[in-house]
Specification:
By secondary structure, the chain is an alpha/beta fold. It contains 7 helices and 27 strands.
């Protein structure tokens, strides 16, 4: 009898615990809210920053298509998602180009689906954060596309990072997951690491004049995942390392060998500065690379290069200015000659005063005789 009562009491405690947990979960779910931002009038807010300021931890902010001119500071544990999931339709342009477009300074924030542009500094900056999720964004035109400082265990995935001075940079940032990104047509390194280790960098498409900045710390990072059967970024059959291209079509993945036709180069790829990609991807499906390239803007990159060369080239010679300079230079010479004559040091002999007087008189009498 006592045993039965004991069993019943234990069952009662378990049931009570389950009810309490269910209530807590329900309350937690009920406390999270959804906020809507629209550049038109039908949304709750017309500014993303205003929604962030009003949100509470755990809230989700949905942003409708449009262009939002603002510099964002994400300092709350919120999810900020573009409704369309298409970065071309939802643009965040820096209101102040001298400041970063998006700054994340809180753990477990999520930011997805936006085009980020207009900053001369950083497109998306993560400072001192963990477990943030930066996904499906297009970041371009900044000094650093995405910059991590003192941040760890974050996921940077499925972003297009192009036309920046440096694509992704990590400073004192460890154990981050950087995967499935298109890091191409940047003017400097595609990725740069400083005092950063144990980062997992795989299944990215690299196509820059310099894909990886040469640093010894590169050897302390992991440049591939274990092979697993799943379509990779160039539609090969396996997830493994990265696709290494260059601007001349002579990248390691573009010129490698894949004799067993598994979409993985037969030999590993040595990373500049140290480290190895043991499973560099091979273009098993050539049309997949062409399709991927169609989403990039090679013509904008070429135009950007031309603009940069023009900005750094010397000014063209202006003939009018050169003539003026010649005349200005000639003036002191004439002045010096005059001074020399005044001091009795003539450059060449001239007619004396007597000769001039005789000539004038002769001319006078000739005119009278006429």
């Amino acid at each position: 009898m006592r045993r039965i009562k004991g069993i019943n009491f234990k069952a009662f405690k378990l049931t009570a615990l389950a009810i309490i947990l269910a209530v807590l979960c329900t309350c937690s779910a009920a406390s999270a809210s959804s906020l809507r931002v629209s550049s038109a009038t039908e949304g709750d807010y017309i500014s993303i920053q205003a929604a962030i300021d009003e949100a509470e931890a755990g809230d989700t902010i949905f942003v409708s298509p449009g262009t939002y001119v603002e510099n964002l500071k994400i300092n709350k544990e919120v999810r900020i998602w573009a409704e369309s999931r298409n970065p071309e339709e939802t643009v965040i342009k820096a209101a102040d180009p001298t400041k970063n477009t998006v700054e994340v300074s809180v753990d477990r924030a999520s930011f997805s689906g936006f085009a980020i542009e207009g900053s001369e500094k950083v497109g998306i900056l993560l400072t001192g954060v963990k477990s943030c999720y930066i996904n499906n964004n297009r970041v371009q035109g900044a000094e650093y596309g995405i910059l991590l400082k003192d941040s760890e265990s974050n996921t940077i995935s499925n972003n297009l990072i192009a036309l920046d001075d440096i694509g992704i940079r990590l400073e004192s940032s460890n154990s981050n997951d950087i995967s499935d990104n298109k890091i191409a047509y940047n003017y400097g390194p595609g990725i740069s690491l400083e005092a950063s280790s144990k980062n997992l960098i795989y299944n990215n498409y690299f196509k820059n004049a310099e894909n990886v900045e040469e640093e010894a710390v590169n050897a302390e990072n992991i440049w591939q995942s274990p092979l697993k059967t799943k379509p990779n970024i160039v539609r090969g059959p396996y997830i493994g390392g990265n696709f290494w291209a260059d601007l001349e079509g002579k990248g390691y993945s573009e010129t490698g060998v894949d004799e067993n036709s598994n979409g993985i180069c037969d030999a590993s790829y040595n990373i500049t500065g140290g480290g190895t990609d043991n499973y560099p991807l091979f273009p098993k499906v050539p049309n997949a690379v062409k399709a991927l390239e169609s989403s990039l803007n090679a013509s904008a990159y070429k135009q950007g290069l031309a603009d940069r060369e023009k900005a750094t080239s010397p000014e063209p010679v202006n003939e009018t200015n050169e003539t003026n300079k010649t005349n200005e230079n000639a003036a002191p010479a004439t002045e010096n000659a005059t001074k020399a004559n005044a001091s009795g040091e003539a450059e060449s002999p001239g007619p004396g005063a007597g000769i001039l007087t005789i000539a004038i008189g002769a001319a006078y009498f000739l005119r009278r005789n006429r």
